[in-house]
Design brief:
Oligomer: single chain
Order of helices and strands: HHHHHHHHHEE
Distance between the termini: 28 Å
Helix content: over 70%
Length: 217
């Protein structure tokens, strides 16, 4: 595969993954059975401010990106795109989804949202255009404090879940299933969508898993 073709594929993966991430999050919102950690916070803030959850996601993403400055993190194209594309895709999907009133509809929506979120994570991380702002916050804290990424992720996500819940965000079986399933799903789809790297001599070789894949845009 030529360098130009690889770049084109990576760009398509990046924006398809970010758009699908927003759409999958919208499915979880509509299912109403529990959200992924950061969207619990976004939904709580949306309830408090009257803004849409997508707009809140954009505002929070931009605010988190500002925290990269003291942490000396460098954003990539994927980082900046993440801030806007996910929120817009979430609001756009919610605008066209019909109301889900029965469990017979809400449960499949929840399951589809979790699986598609894993697909989306594999797509955009494998594109290698930089981590999402929230992932970068966790890796930055890891570098600055010397604590493990797992610990930093746990501390940050527990904080946003509790805060979001207190503000009115939804926690439920979907939150638990997401926490259990997203890691294996993301790792699976990272392998599926990985773009081979180009060796120094020009040959195409398989690259390892993209660094910093912490599973949240």
């Amino acid at each position: 595969m030529s360098t130009q073709a690889r770049l084109g594929r990576r760009l398509i993966q990046l924006y398809a993954g970010l758009a699908l991430y927003g759409a999958s999050s919208a499915l979880l919102v509509e299912a109403g059975l529990g959200l992924e950690p950061w969207n619990v916070l976004h939904q709580g803030l949306a309830e408090l401010t009257g803004l849409t959850i997508g707009v809140v996601s954009i505002v929070v993403g931009a605010a988190v990106l500002l925290l990269w400055i003291p942490l000396r993190q460098r954003p990539g194209l994927g980082t900046v795109s993440n801030v806007f594309v996910v929120g817009l895709a979430m609001d756009g999907t919610l605008a066209v989804l019909p109301d889900a009133r029965t469990l017979a509809v809400r449960i499949p929506l929840m399951l589809a949202g979790i699986v598609l979120n894993g697909v989306a994570t594999g797509l955009y991380i494998a594109a290698r255009f930089g981590p999402g702002p929230r992932d970068g916050l966790m890796t930055g804290l890891h570098r600055r404090t010397g604590r493990s990424i797992r610990l930093m992720r746990t501390v940050v996500e527990v904080t946003v879940v509790v805060t979001g819940f207190l503000l009115g965000g939804t926690i439920g079986i979907g939150t638990l299933l997401y926490a259990v399933a997203i890691g294996p799903l993301a790792q699976l789809f990272l392998r599926v969508f990985d773009v081979p790297a180009v060796a120094a001599g020009g040959a195409v070789v398989a690259a390892g898993t993209p660094e910093g894949a912490i599973l949240r845009p």
